[in-house]
C-alpha cells in the first residue's frame, strides 16, 4: 500500500473536469490540493540542486596565485551563475514534460552522480563542451534503448523481491543523504571510523540541532496524520532557522564550521533578475573522440550510460511502489513513455551544459504528501522555472530545514521490505546487499548492480538458475565488467 501522510478524503478530486481526466486524478484516488502540495514539497526538497550543481561543475577562473576551479583541459570553466540558470531551466522543462507525457509525480533535475563524474574525471581530459557532448550521446543511447523496448524489458525482468529491495534501498539512501547534508553524519578528519555523529560524535552546531528537531516535528505530524505534514514541517523549521540565523549570525559553513551547509536562512534584499542562459547550445558532440581517442571516449560514454540507465530505473521502481502505482509484480504501466522522457533529460541537460538530468529520488517526499499524478510534476517544474528569476527567494530555505523530510520519507520507504521473505536466504542476501550498498557507496546503480549479481548467484545455488530471466544474467555480467572497469581499462591501455 502507498504511504500517505494525508487524512483527507481522496475523492472527489476537486479538480476541473478536463484536468481531472487528463491527469487521471480521481482514478488514482488523489485530489487537486494534494497534487499541488506534493509538487511544492518535492521542489523544496530538491531545489538545492540549483545551488549545488554550480558548486560541482561550475568553476572560478584562475587568478594570481590561485589555480582555476573545475577547469577543463584548456583551463576554461563554466560560470557559476550560468550553470545555476541552466540547471533551473532544464529541471523545469523536463519535470513538466515528464508530468505531461508520463503522468507520474517523478520530478527531474541534474543527477548528482554524473555531474561529479564530469567534473572529476571527464572534464580534465576534454573541454567542457566536449564533456557535455558525451552526455548528449549518453542520452541518445538511453532513448534508443527505451524506444526499442529493451529498457522496459529489463525493468520487467527484475523479480518482485528485488524491486521491493530497490525501493527500500532508495529509502535508506535518501535518509542518508538527509543525514549527511544536514551535518548529522560527518566524515572525521582523524579517527578509526569512516563516519561519525556530528562533530566528534556529538551534535555541536545549531543547524544540525534544527535538523534533529525537524525530524521529530515532521515525524509527529505524520503520526498525527496532519494533511501537508511535511510541508508544514519545512515551513516551521525554515522560520526557526531564520530566527536562529538572526540571533547567532552563523553564516555559511565555508566561513564558519558551525554555519549552514548551503543556503543561509535570511530574508533576501531582492527577488533576482533575468537569468543568463549563454550556456545553452554550448556543446561539441564528437570533439572528445578526436581529442582523447575513440576508445577512451567510449569508456566514458559506457560509464555514463550504465549510471543513467540503472539510477533512473531504480528510482522509478522505488517511487512507483511507494506511490502505489505499480502492479503486484512491481511493474509500472506506461513505463516505456516514462523511460523515453527520462532519457531525453540527458540529451537536454548535455545540450544546455547543466549535465545529465534524471528522475530525482527526492520526489518521494511529494509522494508522501499525496502526489500521484504528473500534475505534481508540473507544479514542481513551474517552480524551477520561477527559480531562474527568483533565486534569492528560495535561498532562504536551508538544507537543514528540508532534509528532515528525506529522513521521514526514508523511514516510510524502508517498509517495502515487508513484502520480502527473509526466511529464504537466496532472497535475503540480495535484498540486504541492495539496501545497504546504495547508502554505503552513495550510488543507486551500485546497489542495483550488487543486487543483480548476488541474485543470480544465490538463485543458482538454490537450484533456481532456470527461473532467472536471461536479461538478469546479461545485466549481471555487464555489472561485473562495470565494477572491474579500472583494471580492464589498464589492460586495454
List the main descriptive attributes of the protein structure presented here:
two-stranded parallel sheet, mainly alpha, globular, 493 residues, two-stranded antiparallel ribbon
For the secondary structure, the number of strands is 6
Q: What is the end-to-end distance?
A: 51 Å
Shape: globular
**Mean of pLDDT:** 89
- Helix amount, in percent? 55-70%
SSE topology:
Blueprint (H helix, E strand, L loop, with lengths): L16 H7 L8 H15 L1 H10 E2 L18 E2 H22 L6 E3 L1 H11 L5 H20 L2 H8 L2 H22 L3 E2 L9 E2 L8 H18 L5 H20 L38 H6 L1 H29 L12 H17 L5 E3 L3 H6 L5 H14 L3 H4 L4 H15 L11 H17 L2 H18 L8 H14 L1 H8 L1
Parallel strand pairs: 1-2
Antiparallel strand pairs: 3-6, 4-5
Description:
The chain has 493 residues and is mainly α. It has one domain. Helices cover 61% and strands 3% of the residues. The chain has 21 helices and six strands. It has a two-stranded parallel ribbon. Helix 12 packs across helix 19. The longest helix is centred in the middle third of the chain and has 29 residues. It is globular, with a radius of gyration of 22 Å. The termini are far apart. The N terminus is likely disordered.
